[in-house]
Write a structure and sequence with these properties.
Blueprint lengths: L39 E7 L5 H14 L4 E5 L7 H10 L4 H25 L3 E5 L2 H10 L4 H7 L8 E6 L2 H10 L18 H23 L2 E4 L4 H21 L14 H4 L1
Parallel strand pairs: 1-3, 1-4, 2-3, 4-5
Helix pairs in contact: 1-8, 4-7
The chain binds adenosine-5'-triphosphate and magnesium ion.
Magnesium ion binds next to helix 1.
Length: 268
């Protein structure tokens, strides 16, 4: 499987290599004066039910024992938008446009009120998914990728993206043993299959293909998530420890407003 590739840096740059001045992915939040941001933004990407929450909880306790202050963030957790998103998703009425805009508003709110303040205070921010999940979902839902990337031009380029790389064959039993298949994660909104199980498999295959492409494009570090929890955690810790060691030896560059005017495709 394409997703069986091991954690090898790709796309011509070393992922996580400390470009210690934070950069906007696109236009950013133009009204925001950043100042120094000594913290670290580490993203755990991966499809629905792959085990992100399990791994992030373990990472948090490990990092705290190592002496880091940790802040967790994830989709639909902004106080401003989370109830609205949950209500909208319960109703099954969202389309790709309204879905993306709600998520983008949630993201912008968390960025301004949680992520940036935590980075300013020197925290390690662990993000449970990031803009890449929306890129993958939107492409599968038929949106123009250039439009999606424009909308998420408010984002920062993270310091490190760790991708929990799985295949459908390993994902299905994990999801069935956990909380089960839900409407959105099974792609029922796209009417892909005759039943939820069939739809889940088809939708997740498409999503995983997109993640795979994004992993190459953005240089995610791949972690083989078909394995047990401890093996995955071991790899994640190794990658994070290496990144933090490099970051310690490379003091933060002067913080600027990012790369204003640069198209998202060139600044990611
Ligand atoms: N490596 C693993 N092997 C087997 N089961 C696992 C593994 N990692 C997590 N699980 C189990 O899979 C289920 C989903 O895990 P978890 O909630 O961490 O995933 P998630 O990616 O956060 O899911 P969601 O997309 O719903 O947020 C849980 O029942 C968990 O115990
Ligand atoms: Mg989770």
């Amino acid at each position: 499987m394409a997703r069986a590739k091991r954690a090898t840096p790709s796309a011509g740059r070393v992922p996580g290599h400390p470009r210690r001045g934070k950069r906007w992915y696109g236009h950013g939040l133009p009204y925001l004066k950043l100042g120094p941001l000594p913290g670290h933004l580490i993203v755990i990407e991966g499809t629905d039910g792959v085990g992100r929450s399990t791994q992030i909880e373990l990472l948090r306790s490990w990092l705290e024992v190592e002496g880091y202050a940790v802040s967790n963030t994830g989709w639909a957790r902004s106080p401003l938008l989370s109830d609205t998103i949950n209500e909208a998703m319960a109703g099954h009425e969202l389309n790709v446009l309204t879905f993306s805009l709600l998520y983008a508003a949630d993201f912008a709110d968390r960025l301004e009120h949680q992520i940036i303040p935590a980075l300013r205070a020197g925290f390690v921010v662990i993000a449970d998914r990031y803009m890449y999940t929306v890129f993958a979902r939107n492409t599968v839902m038929g949106a123009d990728p250039a439009w999606t990337r424009q909308v998420f031009g408010v984002a920062f380029v993270p310091d490190l993206v760790l991708y929990l790389d799985v295949d459908v064959e390993h994902l299905v039993p994990r999801v069935l043993a956990g909380k089960g298949m839900d409407y959105w994660e099974s792609g029922m909104h796209l009417a892909l299959g005759s039943d939820i199980f069939d739809s889940f498999e088809r939708y997740q295959r498409r999503l995983l293909d997109e993640y795979d492409r994004l992993a190459d494009e953005f240089g995610f570090l791949r972690v083989d998530a078909r394995r047990g929890i401890d093996d995955i955690q071991g790899d994640l810790r190794t990658h994070i420890a290496e990144y933090l060691a490099r970051a310690r030896s490379a003091p933060p560059a002067a913080q600027g407003p990012g790369v204003p005017g640069l198209p998202a495709s060139e600044s990611g």
